[in-house]
Amino acid sequence: MYYFNYTYLGMDVPTVILLMLIYSFIGWIYESTVFSLAEQGKFMNRGCFIGPYCPIYGVACMFSLYLLNGITSGFKIVLIAGLVVSAIEYITSVVLEKLFHARYWDYSYFPLNINGRVSVISGIFFGLAVLLLIRVIHPASLHLVLKLSYGKRFYLSLSAIIVFFLDAVFTTVSMCNLNRKCKELYDAWDRYVEKGLDKLNAKKDNLDKFIVVEKGKNIVVKLKGVNKKFVDLETRYLKTFPEFKSTKYSAVIEKMKMVITHKSPDDIEIEHGVDKIFSEISGVDSNDKIDGNNLE
Q1: Structural domain of 120
Q2: pLDDT of residue 210
Q3: Is residue 47 part of a domain?
Q4: Whole-structure pTM value
Q5: Backbone dihedral angles phi then psi of residue 225, each to the nearest 5 degrees
Q6: pLDDT in tens, 203-226
Q7: For the chain, what is the domain count?
Q8: Does 182 share its domain with 142?
Q9: Do 138 and 249 sit in the same domain of this protein?
Q10: At residue 52, does pLDDT exceed 70?
């Protein structure tokens, strides 16, 4: 049996990995039950990944345990943990937006928020959660994990890493496919209008049929003869993250969300949808007069 010499807070690597998995699972339970019931009135799989875990919770918990090691004051724990977890949440939001051109959560409706990525209210909540982690959850979880032999911890942690890696690959591919298909729709529209700049105003006015159809678990988007099918794995984020927003393809994404949540008929035209697509592609305000000079 191979033993790791490195330790983290006196814990060996397999133990740390298993604890991160436990805390990621607890985070997923919270997101899928308490948070989902409060926001949507029903249970939902709120994880970014396919499996039942939210890795950001595991990372935040282990980092907080390291940073707060030796601190006993409840007030200091809540204050420092709230700041640390909020920083992790903010960085994660920025990284996800840069990678996938999307925002998975939005605290804009909370008072004292920063760019909708974090807020004082969420920071206080996470600070209290870390206090509960340090006082109750971590001691109990560590006791449970250490009941297993090192060999069992090693193979369980190795299996968890493999499963998570495969999950991360599928999740990344599905998000890339979602963006790629949206881009292809936008490119098809762009090619259509570029055929004649002198007739761009007329073409823009005629592009009024942008249809989203729900077929089973799949979504089909139709734009001027171009059809794109989005499978369930690619659109599940739109179901589980009501605040999910695309920073590049919002016209398509928002209408898909409406159809998925059945807020509109299956076949529906986007109101002012083409204008929004035009603005996102060209950077020209839809209310402005469009001519060749605008597009240079």
Answers
A1: 7-147
A2: 63
A3: yes
A4: 0.76
A5: 80, -5
A6: 444 444 567 777 777 888 877 667
A7: 2
A8: no
A9: no
A10: yes
